Amino acid sequence: MKSRDVATLAVVSRRALLRTAAGLGGAGALGLWPEVARARTTPYPIEAFFTPARTRAATLSPGGALIAVLDQLGTEDEPHGVIDVLDAADPEGARKRIDLGPTKVESMEWANDERLLVRLAITTTVGPRAVTGSNRRTAAREITSKRLMSVSAVTGQMAVMFQDDHQRLRASRDLGRVIDLLRSDTDHVLMAAWERDGVLGLHKVNVTTGSADRIERGSSGTIGWETQGGVPVIRYDINPRGTVLTISGRASSSSAWRAIRRNRIGDLPEFSWVGETETPGTILVTARAEGEDTMVVREMNLETFGLGAAMASRPGRDVMDSVLDAAGRYVGAGFYGQRLEYDFNDPALGAHHRALNAFLENDCDVYVNDLSRDHNRMVVVAVGPREPGAWYFYDREARAIVNLGAVRLLDYDRLGLTDTLSVTTRDGATIEAYLTAPPGGQPGPLVVLPHGGPEVRDLRTWDRQVQVLAAQGWWVLRPNFRGSGGYGQAFAQQGWTRWGDRMQEDVEDAIDHAITLKGLDANRVAIMGTSYGGYAALMGAVRRPDLYKAAIAICGVADLPEMLAWERREDDTADRQVYTFWTKRIGDPDTMGPQLIAASPRRRAAEIACPVLLVHGVNDSIVPVIESRRMNEALRRAGKTVDYIEVADAGHADWPAEKEQELLERYIVLLKQAFA
């Protein structure tokens, strides 16, 4: 795309750019993509959503002079990584290509104004090997290791971090984690690396030579740090079961760590790092102070852990993103309204961000990835219901916007539009829901997808599962029922101890609203979800056998008393924090026994009328696989139609993309039969 005045961006769209690229070869990086000239109304086949991601990162150097784009070429079996370097003063000029060779690339950032840090995934095949003292041999297996490589954008010279530590390279699978880019020391970064005894160490690494020196050693549960001036001031530790994150802090003058907060893994955080400040012993965090409803940006004193006044906040909305410039200075905070919206310290930045939104037809969340020190140039990434991810360079002074690359290029018109619904519930409350139409928007069946958590939330953004279902000609509904996160503590608490009733009612009310609004077929509705969403699918089938024609539960809870008993047995925290967390949310078995039984799908399997598909990872440590096994047994004993799939070598719905595609194809078969 040629340079254009900011004022014209509202009438120039990503869609127009895409069509220019398809017909004429395009401008910028879109000319690299050959696949867009196809029938514009035909939905995509499922395999189109699982093509390998091409662009993995696009990033702006701290001074704003260079842009680097990381692409994955080749195939899954024969990958090839490349970096294209662009002059930010002429972003549509010739690209300088740096060939990384036959490797899988994952991410990239600038270490300084010349050198890039590229995270690689290296897969090797080990074995088979003889077992000592036996005539048996182990099977061959693949091992994937993460490595970080420094690459000069000027000369192409490369160095692997820790490359002189041959024993560490052989023994460690993860040597790719940067903790601090050390903006005041352009020759080094801080990286986390596992020591021989399994404890995490913090190392100062030279980005030119790869040599490293350890500066800090964690405890047995340490998984990371945050630093101020290169000194660790925040530490993250996880319990052995992997369910609770403890956040500790210390002043730079102290060696003693003290706990600040604990957070259950998988929920929206109650405390998170934003960045440093220029005042020693003071950092920026997002936190919910006692008595407050929402997460806000504020200062924190590392001596007292005292929190300062709110620097950025919105009623009923938690902070979900923050922006720092290349010098590490705080620039603004992001909140989720109709889409991602920023409150910038400089109002002029807000105007430019709104112009970028208009360019993208107000259909994407535009994240500010990189902002130059002078705030003139930025690289943003756009993600939306019809955009899996695309990177753009924006120059305020030159009034230019240039596409740099995309995860995968899919035609907007062949994907489903998504509306934000405001739903009035049966008791007068208001919730949001996202409704995605099939391509063309014709009335038809509806699939409802309650999210997991439950104290997380759905966003109006890219969701592969949603678009795959929409491509079948079905509408897809994602309600943010009461009990969801992101809307403040009061909204989340409205779902506490209301599993099986209020939270289900909100889902049902959102369905009624969508059916009435769009004239959908009320006789063809199905429900499907993962984790808490799997529970909601099963409980929905219990409550409304008249409504749902199929239920798909993925890694879902089926029996609340048994789930709580398991949490109690497995809780390895000193104060039983995990168990207490769940008794507050689900209910206390000592005082709510009958209610918990009534809200357990397994105990009421005989009331389910529709066919059920259960899917569970065998190694799930969040919701044990026994939940689905027992639900399967209960449905079979009741004479119900049920199919059960166990995924080997998988945990909490963490299987690879090829398995997800296989499972989605199974879901589609069931739903087609149910809607026939």
Give the total of beta strands. 35
**What's the pLDDT, averaged over the residues?**
91
Distance between the termini: 46 Å
Characterize the quaternary organization of these chains: single chain
Query: How can the largest sheet be summarized?
Result: 8 strands, mixed
Explain what the structure shows.
The protein has twelve helices and 35 strands. With 676 residues, the protein is α+β, with helices and mostly antiparallel strands. The strands form eight sheets. It has an eight-stranded mixed beta sheet with strand order 28-29-31-30-32-33-34-35, sandwiched between helices.
Outline the secondary-structure elements:
Elements: H1 14-24, E1 55-60, E2 66-74, E3 79-87, E4 96-101, E5 104-110, E6 115-126, E7 141-152, E8 158-160, H2 166-171, E9 174-175, E10 177-180, E11 188-194, E12 200-206, E13 212-217, E14 222-228, E15 231-238, E16 244-249, E17 258-264, E18 271-276, E19 282-287, E20 296-301, E21 321-324, E22 330-336, E23 340-344, H3 347-359, E24 365-371, E25 377-384, E26 387-395, E27 400-406, E28 418-424, E29 430-436, E30 446-448, H4 464-470, E31 475-480, H5 489-493, H6 502-518, E32 525-530, H7 532-543, E33 548-554, H8 560-570, H9 577-585, H10 589-598, E34 612-617, H11 626-637, E35 642-647, H12 657-675
Parallel strand pairs: 7-9, 30-31, 30-32, 32-33, 33-34, 34-35
Antiparallel strand pairs: 1-2, 2-3, 3-4, 5-6, 6-7, 7-8, 10-11, 11-12, 12-13, 14-15, 15-16, 16-17, 18-19, 19-20, 21-22, 22-23, 24-25, 25-26, 26-27, 28-29, 29-31
